[in-house]
Amino acid sequence: MRALFDLPFTELVFRAASVHRQHFDPAQVQVSTLLSVKTGGCPEDCAYCPQAARYDTGVQAHKLMDTDEVLAKARAAKAAGASRFCMGAAWRSPKDRDIAKVADMVSAVKSLGLETCATLGMLSAAQAGALKQAGLDYYNHNLDTAPEFYGQIIHTREYQDRLDTLGHVRDAGLKTCCGGIVGMGESRDERAGLLHALASLPAHPDSVPINRLVKVAGTPLAEQAELDPFEFVRTIAVARILMPRSMVRLSAGRATMSDELQALCFLAGANSIFLGDKLLTTGNPDVAADHALFARLGLQPMTIGCGDGDSPCACAGTAHADVRASEAAALV
Length: 332
Ligand code: SAM
Ligand code: DTB
Ligand code: SF4
Prior knowledge:
The chain is α/β, with parallel strands linked by helices. The chain has helices spanning 2-5, 9-23, 67-80, 96-110, 125-134, 147-150, 159-171, 188-199, 229-242, 259-267, 287-297, 321-331, and strands spanning 28-38, 84-89, 115-119, 138-140, 175-177, 180-182, 207-212, 247-250, 272-274, 300-301.
């Protein structure tokens, strides 16, 4: 694992690009949009997070949104080209009455023909089951960093708590979205440790978000030194090689990346992004800029499913050619 990270950069990217092509059409990128349905006021102490109540970050707390408001945002996301809508809440863990409300949102968003994802903190087995019943497709719950670095970032939740929630999510039949953040001051060994932990889960996550730390004033990591961009690309490449069939998401941090750096990430095997001017509380590239980037790079948004139960479509260009072409046309 560490040996992969240590390869000459071009050799590592070449290997990752080769693995990518064995399992996916490299011109296809899955597109999701995020919405913070409950913002701020979180009791946890995650050192990177603008939504932790204990840090003065200027994030305005907002109670759980109404389903109608969420639906309007989901419609707009679909019109902009997203195939999945991810609802995030700044909770340590939701209460059962919260789950009932989120279940209502999930069903409504699903009825628009979008895939659904939620990230709500720790879940019990029963809560995961209720979300599955409501039509939830994916649950995002990150390991965030290597077990050996975790104690420097979060003190209010154990690594094992995260593994337990991921177990409940898998057992409920939900697809898992699980990744982490790089650029928090961890070493290369610790970046390798995060990827090793992800690839050692009982099943590889269906989706692996690789976030580059968004430095937010007021958080303990506000002044963190910038990670070498090539090191970020290496992380994407090693993730692609270790989890060849997973969707690797170029997640937070794109707002401060050049188009060239993002292109390198796609070359290294990233095949999904968040589209929309905002992530949860921080900025993301303008939708128009992302449409232009897709057009310049000849990338196409991935469609939902290919009829064989595989979702998102991993048919490597053998199905939906017409749909993809028309969607690509709509993007430019
Ligand atoms: N509160 C829930 C939880 O933590 O499980 C769900 C929402 S939380 C904001 C989702 C993920 O966003 C975190 O696990 C973290 O990986 C990512 N995240 C939060 N703040 C970030 C930042 N400043 N930079 C990069 N990623 C961040
Ligand atoms: C993930 O791994 N990254 C997304 C999503 N899962 C929920 C969130 C990024 C949040 C960045 C900070 C913010 O906008 O608040
Ligand atoms: Fe709360 Fe999630 Fe932010 Fe941690 S990452 S402080 S749990 S909202």
